[in-house]
Specification:
- The chain is an all-alpha fold and 246 residues long.
- It has helices spanning 6-22, 28-41, 46-65, 80-106, 109-114, 116-134, 142-155, 159-170, 188-204, 212-245.
- It has one domain (6-17, 46-245).
- Helices cover 73% and strands 0% of the residues.
């Protein structure tokens, strides 16, 4: 194994901190958020709930099946520091776009705010595909799309499910045993429920008139920032795993 340079040694410290945060068990604040979520849900019309659920399924399936979800070719011959810098640039661009879109949608009432969901998921998916390429991975590959989907789950799942997903990412290798071999084998029901349960409290508050605009802008910014951070660290894990094997 090649000895890490000074930058990589700092990244290893950041990865250890990230790992501790991801694996932290749910606390009182998590339980309070769940109770608040039920209150917010009751304020949203049922027709909007149904639209959102359908959009989540349709859009997230694009991660695995979308032929149009293409990005630049995988970046080669670049240091980890260079890849991190490029990834941060893309995260900044996407979270700025998402914040602007969320603010406009949140000011438009229930229907316009509901329309923000597919746009936001589209931002998330495209960001993950671009980050994959920056770290040298081809998102056209089926197994890479599974990895991208796992990052998505890591960012937007309950504490218990997040721990299980992290275990998969931490030991991700070329061995595909136990992973879905096609989109029809994937557990879409669990995926949708986890995403809905996680994002409802933040995003559904955007559907409330008057306060929706500032909430929409802030929440979209935070969600894209959070997703980007998880993606960077997930690919950093693979970077060091590959170095260890070499």
């Amino acid at each position: 194994m090649t000895r890490p340079d000074i930058y990589e040694e700092q990244v290893l410290i950041e990865l250890a901190q990230w790992r501790e945060k991801v694996l932290r068990p749910p606390g009182p604040m998590d339980l309070a958020a769940r109770r608040m979520q039920s209150t917010v849900n009751n304020l949203i019309p049922e027709r909007v709930h149904k639209v959102i659920t359908r959009v989540i399924e349709q859009m997230t399936r694009a991660i695995l099946t979308g032929a149009d979800m293409t990005t630049a070719k995988p970046l080669t011959n670049a240091s980890l520091g260079a890849r991190d810098a490029l990834a941060r640039q893309r995260i900044l661009a996407y979270r700025t776009m998402a914040a602007a879109e969320g603010g406009v949608a949140g000011a438009g009432g229930f229907l316009l705010a509901a329309a923000d969901f597919p746009v936001l998921i589209g931002f998330k998916i495209k960001l993950l595909f671009e980050i994959a390429a920056l770290y040298g991975h081809d998102a056209e590959d089926w197994d890479e799309r599974l990895f991208i989907l796992s990052i998505f789950q890591l960012a937007f799942s309950s504490a218990d499910h997040r721990q299980a997903v992290f275990g998969q990412l931490e030991t991700w290798t070329g061995d595909t045993d136990g992973r879905p071999s096609s989109h029809s084998d994937f557990d879409w029901r669990t995926f949708q429920q986890q995403y809905r349960d996680y994002i409802d409290l933040a995003k559904l508050a955007q559907l409330i008139p008057v306060i929706g605009a500032p909430i929409g802008a802030y929440v979209n910014f935070r969600l894209l920032d959070q997703l980007g951070a998880h993606a960077m660290n997930a690919y950093r894990l693979r970077w060091f795993a590959a170095r260890a094997i070499a």
